[in-house]
């Protein structure tokens, strides 16, 4: 038996693949390499290049590698860009998930861990997000993730699909120097690239009602996130019950200014970030409570902010050396 990881050549998916391997769980990867990298997939893990919009490809992969469960990480993950490309976002995140679920049903694969997003909450009414916080996504990306959760729920009712969805905000760091965040939209790579190119990183607003005036958000280490995906898969494989969704959150968060200070320390590049105006609709503080995940998925923050930044910078420098 093996577990299929969709999007397993991406930043998060590749960490999930390594965590599965560390737990002794055979794995196969499907990825279209639209944002992933074949080099991120370990050489001993079967890699199928293709889109999960291709139902036949999924069915063939499930049968060939005796897949018994799926960790679904693949998707179009750029919330801001999704506003300009809503149809593409829905195709990649909703249609593709439906095709995946059809293929799983055809092959009698009844277990799935869905990599969802805290974007399903939109801008929540309070500072602490729990699983019961009202869902109010404010981008096609957030909407598509919520619809993905609904698809799993409805398949659970219809055919007994056993599932759970993991929601999280900002994933950072590296658990392996061969894997780094290559997103053109995420904070860490944006700041790293600015510094490498001699530009000054920017903070959007420093007059929020927070201790240092900058936004406070959840930042979690990618290896911690990956491990909870593995535990979820193990519990589903063992026939144990799980909640339909879990927040993977820190409970307190980190400010953007603290991030900037930690990056200056890690890189050895002294800088004072430029201050730009606030972005419209940006809340002062949003963090997620992770109590349920701590109870059921061995979730905890195993890495400090310093470790998150240092590991990300080490992986970024290693990539530059390999180039």
TrEMBL record:
Domain NAD-dependent epimerase/dehydratase span(s) in chain numbering: 3-249
GO molecular function: UDP-glucose 4-epimerase activity
Alphabetical UniProt keywords: Carbohydrate metabolism, Isomerase, NAD
Reaction equation(s) it catalyzes: UDP-alpha-D-glucose = UDP-alpha-D-galactose
GO biological process, alphabetically ordered: galactose catabolic process via UDP-galactose, Leloir pathway
Cofactors named for this entry: NAD(+)
Pathway assigned in UniProt: Carbohydrate metabolism; galactose metabolism
UniProt EC number: 5.1.3.2
SUPFAM superfamilies, alphabetized: NAD(P)-binding Rossmann-fold domains (SSF51735)
Domain of life: Bacteria
Keyword Isomerase (UniProt): yes
Family, per entry: Belongs to the NAD(P)-dependent epimerase/dehydratase family.
Name of the protein in its database record: UDP-glucose 4-epimerase
